[in-house]
Amino acid sequence: GEIDILKIDIEGAEKDIFRSSDLNWMKKVKMIVIELHDSYHFANFQEDVKKMGFSAHAVSDSFAFAVAGPA
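RE: above sequence
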């Protein structure tokens, strides 16, 4: 099945998730909502998810979302 919305709030481990070697599960995700922490900023998130076909949008300094498909 597909994942309509994936909410991520993992207190600083965001980079570990998006820079993992096994990201096949991301193909099932339509939207990501994330709280960003520590040194993993919006620009990092945007760069990482763009490689997987998502367009990212900042809501604030610490919140963002990304949608699968063309920007």
